[in-house]
Each structure stands twice: as structure tokens, then as C-alpha cells.
UniProtKB/TrEMBL annotation:
PANTHER family for the chain: ARAC-FAMILY TRANSCRIPTIONAL REGULATOR, HTH-TYPE TRANSCRIPTIONAL ACTIVATOR RHAS
Organism: Paenibacillus enshidis
Domain (HTH araC/xylS-type) ranges: 685-782
Protease recorded as keyword: no
One Pfam assignment: HTH_18
Keywords: DNA-binding, Membrane, Transcription, Transcription regulation, Transmembrane, Transmembrane helix
Transmembrane segments: 27-48, 309-332
Protein name: AraC family transcriptional regulator
Length: 787
């Protein structure tokens, strides 16, 4: 608890002394703004909301009860109407009065079918009996067939209904079934025929389960009770069963209470039972002169449960709203004070103060003045860094990184960096240094950035000397951009003259100072800053039309653009074919010579840089196609590198030639050589195994090559490269070694040994003497003496 209290106090919830006046005032204000409306709204919502909810629940329960009663009366009335209609059916005319049903089989079957049809017509009907009065009263029913009525009480009950005047339909409670003990039935009895003197009854026994379902619809809630009783207090049906002589103790007591104290046809009252309060609703409804009373009772707690739950929810929501309001007010005040607190804490840490001023605003005001003084010092330092920022902005502008800014926004930004842009136009000049590969001893191939830096310094010094209003951009690829400014009123011819004068001076200075050839390309005058990136792209494209191999060149964008599409495209197809053939052969020196010849022909026939680059790109594609035909995939040799992009970065023919040799051809030739060496070694090993098995036969080079599936030339070359000796020498040495083993290890004659290894005896003696210095016989004698 101590740690929790300390943490709460640290967060500022308890208004500690370290907080200033501003924090206390803001917290009290937020508490008043948030909590008071929440309390008022919660109280009003509980008072009016609970009352409305209670009314709605009561109204809904009454509506449900009335709808259930209405449905029950409609179902019973429908059954009454149906019974009357059946009584007028011609099949129940007077002919049935004295008919012998056992003799009249067809008539009996027709009655069975009619009774079955009546039973299935209405779900309330459980069974239908036809009572026929006479000297021998009998009952006709589907389940029991024809049954005689012998009991006196049964005859009296049926006869009493038939003799009742002024009524043809009767609702009966507890009417018995003939010859059955269970007489707790709800019955609708209808005299037949409908016209004339009745001779029988249609007795409809109601389905107990359906009656129970109808009564259950009167119940309010799961714990409710509902039942119907008649004028004598006998239960007609309850939600537990139909036709019971008495209900549960609660229902019996409740029905007795209603019969004793009822003062009207319907009413509602509260009833106490076993320490629980029930709300009871009752009412009367008549069925053909029979008065029935319906009763529904529900626990008061179950009815008010939704209201109580909602009331609790309202109270809980109100409390949560109040707590939330407290929390929000604390968070809001803390949020409001957070920037003040951060500033105070920041100043205190910077100034190494132990405690801030109790008046936070005054403290911040003093510190703000101190910061204002320091900002002037930082502004002076920023002015010193402005040139670097200016150059960075110009580089991004020319490269098109500010495409999302319009003309006014760009001029505003340039004004902020010190440019005078009002009534100003611009012209872009591209100064490109070439011939790095020809500088022997002064620069290396990787000194591109160093040459670019030297070119930028040259441009800056020259523009200052000519008093030109210009800015330089170092592209770090041996090219420098020059953004020349001029007045919009200045004639276009004057602007072009100034640009060409500057370009001529740059070309001369490049040759004199840097000892490099250069290409200077002047763009077109532009009145909009947004046109500058497009001008750079045009210059980059047109500079590829320079003549390779010539000295300094000065080009004009306006002069080149109309005619750039009229040049033919020379391409040395024959030289390309020599390169691809050399690739397929795998001879590195021949490939190098073919590439050198291709580039020389390309430079001679198409001297423009664009044609040379395009031709080199085409040659690269042809080389990759040839490599694929030899069974190697370029990705396995060069990885995922973008070779075409690398090639596009090269401008000089010498650079392109060196790049094709070392970057493309050399990895392929090394891989091919390694794989060929392995293939030849495996071929020689297979040949050796075959020779050792068949050396005694006439095994020629051609026969061995045919067995291995290769050419004699390839097999001979493989033997020479792998073993250092040719095929014949290897075979001869193998046979001599085998003869030496036989001379030492067996008693075979020299002639026999010669036959075993496939030589004639005389040739074996001569060859053995030449290689070993002794004859076979002398070799055997020397070996035996040593043993």
C-alpha cells in the first residue's frame, strides 16, 4: 500500500505540493465541468428511466395475456363452429337412428372414415365418438369400433344431454368415457342431426397436451402459474395437466380465494404464499352457457426482475460515468498540465534547479527570454550552413524530387535559400568529362568522384570569373550541372550566346587544366522552375548522341532534338556471331578477341554514344542467350545483379569492353573450365575401369571410345590432360605391369604370358627389354634370386 500510495502521489493525483498554482486551478475546473453534468444526468436517467421501464414491462405483460386469451377463445370458438357444421352433414341424417351397424358394413366403414377425418381436422381434438341412442345405445369410435353402452350412469349422462332443451352444443368438464375409469375429460358434445329430433351425439374429447399448451401461454414468466376452473370450482385445465380433479396446493388455495372474495368478472390483486408475493389476474369467459374462470399468477419478483436489473444497470452506469468523469477530469487536467510540466522539468534540468518557481507561467516566461537570446546565436550558425542546404535543395530540385510542389511554392522555397527568382528565367547546362580510361598514371578507373570534384571546382571558378549568375550541381558521375539565371526581359538570342560562351570556356579549360575531353550540352531557356527536371532528362538523353572518340564537343538541345530520330542504327551482326560462337566453344582468349573486334567495328560504324550503348546492350543479350544454349543459367553465374543497369552506367567504349570481358565472359569461362575438368576426370576413370577388365583383347582407342559413348579425340585429349600420358602409353604400361605380376607369381611360360596380355611373344620380349632394360626371363631370374 505504501508503494501504491507513493506511485499515485508521483502521478499527481493527490495534488502534491510540487505542483504549482496552474495545475490546481485546472484540476478543479475540470472536475466541475465533467462530474456535475454526469451526476445530474445519472439521477434523471434513473428516476425517469426506471418508471418508464416499469410501465413498459407491465403493459407488455398485459398485452401478452390478452393475446393469449384471445387466441385460446378463437381456437375454442373455431372448434364449436366446426362441430355445428359436422352435425348438419347429410351422413348423420335420421337413417342412422335404427340401422344395424354390424349388418350395414359399408355404412359403418363410412362412419369410421368420417370420424377419423374429424379427428385430424383440428389439433385440439384427441378422439371423436358418435353416440347413437335407441333401445340398444352404442358408441361408434375409430379406436374402439362399435361399443354398447350398458351402464345406467352412462346412459343417463348421454340421455341427459340429448334431452336438454334449447341447446345443441355443450362444453362439459369431467365427462366420462364409456367403460373407462378415467373420466377427467374436457368434452364438446354436439347433438345430431342438426335438424329435427336428435338421435345421438358427436362427442369431441379434447387433447390434454394441447389444452396445457394453451393455458401455459397465459403464464407470465417461467415461474408463473395459470389454470381454468368452472363454476363449481373444479379445475378444467392447468399448466400442469388437463381435467384434473384438483390442482397443486397453491392453485387450489388461489381458486378458493377467488371464489370467496371475487367482486367482479375480472380483476388483479396481490397474493401471499409461502413468503412470496404473487400478482394474480383472473377473468370469466363463457362457453355455450358454461362459465369458466381463467387465472394467471406470477411471482412479483420475476415480473420486476427486468426492471430491477435495468435499475441496477442504470445505477452502475451512472456510477461508472461518475468514476469515468473523475478519471477523465484528472487525465484532462494532467494532459493540460503535461506540456507545462514538461517545459518546467526541461528548463529545470537544463538549469540544474532543484525546485521550479511555484508560478509556472512566470518561470517559463523567464526561461523563454533566455531561449530567445540563444536562438539568435543559432541563427548565425544556420547562415553559415546555408550554402550546403542550398546545394542539397538544388540537387533535389533538378532530380525531380519536388514534383509535388507547384511553381509558387518552389519560388518561395528558392527565395528562402537566397535566390532571386522574381522575373527570372533559367537555362540548364550539362558539363560532362570523358576519357578517364585514357588517363595513364594520373587517374585510376575508380577515381570517378575525384574527377567529378575537380570538374565542379573548375566550373565554379570559371562562372565566377565570367561574372555569371549560376549554381553548380555535382552528379558524382564525372558530370556537372550548371543552372544559369537570366532576366525574363533578356532576349533569347542573348541568353543562348551567353550559354555557348560559357560552354566554350568550359571545354577549353577542361583540356587545359584537367587534360580531359569534355562534352558541353546547352539546354533551352525556361521561364518556369517546374520545367527544370524535364530539361535535365532531355540533356541526359541527348548527350548520348555525342561523337565517341572526338575531342571537346559543344551541343545544343534545340539543334539536336528535331533530328535525333533520323539517324540510322548500325550494328555489326557478323562480329556478334563471332562472339557467340567463341562463347559456345568456351575459349576465353578467342572470346576476348571477338569482343574487342565487335566494339571496334561498333565505334567505327556508329560513333554516337547512344548507338554504342545500345549495341553493347544487344551484345549482352546475345551472350546470355549463347550461355543458356551451353547449359548454364546467367542467374547462376551473376546472381540477381542488374547487368543491364551496370552496362548503362558506362559511356566509354574501352570501359564497356573491359566490363564485358571481366564481368561477363570471365565467370562463364572459369565455370566452364572447372566443369569440363571434372567431366574429363570421370571419363578417364570409366575408361581405366573398362581397360583393366578387357586389356588382354585388342582394345583400340576407337573401341574404348565407342563403349564409353564419346569420340576418340575427346578420350585421347582427356587421357593426356588427366594422366599426363596418351591412351596407347597407358594401355602398354598396364599390360607390362600385368606381365611382371605373372612372371613373379606364376610358373607360366613367357609365350603363355604374352597370349594372356594380348601380345606376340617376340613383341613382348622387345617391349619388355625397352621399358625394363632386361628380357622377361632375366626379370624372373632376378626376382627369384632376391627371394
Amino acid at each position: 500500500m505504501k508503494h501504491l500510495f507513493a506511485r499515485i502521489r508521483k502521478t499527481g493525483f493527490l495534488l502534491p505540493a510540487v505542483k504549482g498554482q496552474f495545475y490546481r486551478k485546472s484540476l478543479l475546473l475540470m472536475l466541475g465541468i465533467t462530474c456535475l453534468p454526469t451526476i445530474i444526468m445519472g439521477c434523471l436517467f434513473y428516476i425517469f428511466g426506471s418508471a418508464n421501464i416499469k410501465e413498459e414491462v407491465t403493459y407488455s405483460n398485459e398485452a401478452l395475456l390478452q393475446n393469449a386469451l384471445k387466441r385460446m377463445e378463437e381456437d375454442l370458438n373455431q372448434l364449436e363452429l366446426t362441430a355445428v357444421q359436422w352435425a348438419y352433414d347429410p351422413r348423420f341424417d335420421g337413417s342412422l337412428r335404427n340401422i344395424d351397424l354390424k349388418q350395414e358394413y359399408s355404412t359403418t366403414q363410412e362412419l369410421y372414415r368420417t370420424l377419423v377425418g374429424m379427428k385430424g381436422f383440428n389439433p385440439l381434438i384427441d378422439q371423436v365418438h358418435l353416440y347413437l341412442d335407441g333401445l340398444s345405445p352404442r358408441i361408434v369410435s375409430d379406436p374402439d369400433g362399435i361399443e354398447a353402452v350398458d351402464g345406467y350412469e352412462d346412459k343417463a349422462a348421454y340421455r341427459g344431454i340429448i334431452d336438454s332443451p334449447n341447446k345443441s352444443s355443450f362444453w362439459l368438464n369431467g365427462f366420462p368415457r364409456v367403460n373407462q375409469q378415467d373420466n377427467h375429460e374436457v368434452v364438446l358434445a354436439q347433438k345430431v342431426p342438426g335438424v329435427g329430433e336428435p338421435y345421438g351425439l358427436l362427442v369431441f374429447y379434447l387433447n390434454r397436451d394441447k389444452l396445457v399448451e394453451m393455458v401455459r401461454e397465459l403464464s407470465l414468466g417461467k415461474s408463473g402459474h395459470s389454470f381454468i376452473f368452472d363454476e363449481q370450482g373444479n379445475f378444467v385445465v392447468t399448466d400442469k395437466g388437463a381435467g384434473l380433479p384438483e390442482g397443486s396446493p397453491f392453485e387450489s388455495a388461489l381458486s378458493a380465494q377467488i371464489m370467496r372474495h371475487r367482486t367482479s368478472e375480472s380483476g388483479t390483486f396481490l397474493y401471499e404464499w409461502e413468503n412470496r408475493t404473487y400478482t394474480v389476474t383472473y377473468g370469466d369467459f363463457s362457453k355455450l352457457g358454461l362459465e369458466w374462470t381463467y387465472v394467471t399468477a406470477a411471482s412479483l419478483s420475476s415480473l420486476t426482475a427486468p426492471v430491477q436489473l435495468l435499475s441496477k444497470i442504470i445505477i452502475a452506469i451512472s456510477l461508472c460515468g461518475f468514476v469515468l468523469a473523475l478519471l477523465l477530469s484528472w487525465l484532462a487536467s494532467k494532459r493540460m498540465y503535461s506540456p507545462i510540466s514538461r517545459l518546467v522539468r526541461l528548463f529545470r534540468d537544463n538549469r540544474h534547479l532543484s525546485e521550479p518557481n511555484p508560478d509556472e507561467i512566470g518561470f517559463l516566461e523567464n526561461e523563454w527570454r533566455h531561449l530567445y537570446e540563444e536562438s539568435h546565436e543559432l541563427r548565425d550558425k544556420l547562415e553559415k550552413a546555408r550554402p550546403g542546404l542550398r546545394s542539397s535543395f538544388l540537387l533535389h530540385l533538378i532530380q525531380g524530387h519536388y514534383y509535388y510542389l507547384n511553381e509558387e511554392e518552389l519560388r518561395e522555397r528558392m527565395s528562402g535559400f537566397g535566390w532571386t527568382v522574381n522575373d527570372k528565367g533559367f537555362l540548364l547546362i550539362l558539363f560532362q568529362v570523358t576519357g578517364l580510361g585514357r588517363q595513364q598514371g594520373r587517374f585510376e578507373e575508380n577515381d570517378v568522384q575525384l574527377v567529378s570534384f575537380a570538374a565542379e571546382n573548375l566550373v565554379q571558378e570559371l562562372t565566377r570569373a565570367l561574372d555569371e549568375e549560376a549554381d553548380t550541381i555535382n552528379f558524382q558521375d564525372m558530370s556537372v550541372g550548371i543552372l544559369l539565371s537570366f532576366n525574363k526581359e533578356e532576349p533569347a538570342e542573348t541568353v543562348r550566346s551567353r550559354a555557348f560562351h560559357l560552354a566554350n570556356s568550359l571545354a577549353q579549360a577542361s583540356s587545359a587544366v584537367l587534360k580531359f575531353h569534355s562534352t558541353v550540352l546547352a539546354g533551352t531557356p525556361m521561364m518556369r522552375i517546374t520545367d527544370i527536371p524535364g530539361s535535365l532528362q532531355q540533356l541526359r538523353q541527348v548527350v548520348r548522341y555525342r561523337e565517341v572518340g572526338e575531342g571537346n564537343q559543344i551541343l545544343s538541345l534545340e539543334e539536336l532534338l528535331p533530328g535525333v530520330t533520323g539517324d540510322t542504327v548500325p550494328y555489326p551482326f557478323a562480329a556478334e556471331k563471332e562472339v557467340t560462337q567463341a562463347i559456345r566453344m568456351g575459349f576465353k582468349d578467342e572470346v576476348y578477341d571477338a569482343i574487342q573486334s565487335f566494339m571496334e567495328t561498333l565505334v567505327r560504324e556508329g560513333s554516337k554514344e547512344m548507338f554504342i550503348q545500345d549495341g553493347a546492350v544487344q551484345l549482352l543479350g546475345s551472350i546470355q542467350h549463347a550461355i543458356l544454349e551451353t547449359g548454364y543459367h546467367p542467374r547462376a553465374l551473376y546472381g540477381d545483379d542488374d547487368l543491364y543497369e551496370e552496362l548503362r552506367q558506362l559511356r566509354e567504349p574501352d570501359q564497356i569492353t573491359v566490363w564485358l570481358k571481366h564481368r561477363i565472359v570471365e565467370p562463364y569461362c572459369e565455370t566452364l573450365k572447372r566443369d569440363q575438368t571434372l567431366h574429363l576426370r570421370l571419363l578417364v576413370e570409366r575408361a581405366m575401369d573398362y581397360i583393366k577388365l578387357t586389356f588382354a583383347s585388342d582394345l583400340s582407342l576407337e573401341r574404348c571410345a565407342e563403349h564409353l559413348g564419346t569420340s576418340p579425340f575427346t578420350l585421347s585429349k582427356a587421357f593426356k590432360q588427366v594422366t599426363g600420358s596418351n591412351y596407347i602409353d597407358f594401355l602398354m604400361r598396364l599390360k607390362i605391369d600385368k606381365a611382371k605380376e605373372m612372371l613373379i607369381g606364376t610358373d607360366m611360360m613367357v609365350n603363355e604370358i604374352a597370349q594372356q596380355i594380348g601380345y606376340r611373344p617376340s613383341y613382348l620380349n622387345r617391349l619388355f627389354k625397352k621399358l625394363e632394360g632386361v628380357t622377361p626371363g632375366q626379370y624372373r631370374e632376378q626376382a627369384m634370386r632376391k627371394e
